[in-house]
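So, can you check what follows?
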Amino acid sequence: MHLSSKHLLGIRDLLPEDINLILDTAKQFKEVLQRPIKKVPSLRDITVVNLFYENSTRTRISFELAEKRLSADTINFSANSSSVSKGETLLDTVNNILSMKVDMVVMRHSATGAPHFLSNHIPAAIINAGDGINEHPTQALLDALSITEKLGSLKGKKVAIIGDIMHSRVALSNIYLLTKMGAEITLAGPPTLIPKYITESFPVNITYNVKEALEWCDVANVLRIQLERQNQVLFSSLREYNQAFGITKQLLSGLQKDILIMHPGPINRGVEIDSDVADSGQSIILDQVENGVAVRMAVLYLLSGRKEVST
């Protein structure tokens, strides 16, 4: 069981066979996580550094937990409390860490392409935990696992990605994955938040009417409005965004069917999604969180080069 690449830099680089292998391996690890003793020795003697140059809660904790469940030795690095604040370069930082005999690096960085840069300069396996507005591959993989658990497969399924497409690395990774696996995609949101290059580069549908997207889809993946990445005004106000594009209970009640509701988090309740939707029976948001640990266990294990799952 091996991936076609030494690193996980993005979904763009994966083959459909790689995606299936990761999801199948994640299902095995999810069974492990249901046991009273959730720890396995699969990555014993493997050292992983979590290199986070950008704030994160869910992704960082999910990776840390996945590493501990696999019995890996873990080092946590935060740029805010390191020599980076004194001017140390990315490459110097990583070389210093590698001198401690690290096998794998999980990296989140605000600069697009930072994990790719590292992969060309150091021998350790690199896992991209989010780079700039480029990709967030493990989020797309856990989204895929969450959908397949409920609907059986991705092929032929209709997925609406709704919200801030322009600034979302989750959106781009999901678009790569869903198109590779045969799903249909509709992007929905304000015209100012749907970049033209995506519509020109991928076989996706576009609508600026959220109700139309919901009536079409089997799954709605609702994205956070990323105000911290917006350097200009792209819509009038959060209140008006919610009125025009927010997912509300009233909107879902008007549909002639039930659809799955997803969100990568953190949720802006009352903006892109209302609380009674996020907490409803149609929501699989907490399933996504649970599946994140299993998917990250699978990725870490497969990139480690170990021969078989130790369970």
User: Anything to note?
Assistant: DSSP finds twelve helices and nine strands in the chain. The two ends are 15 Å apart (CA to CA).
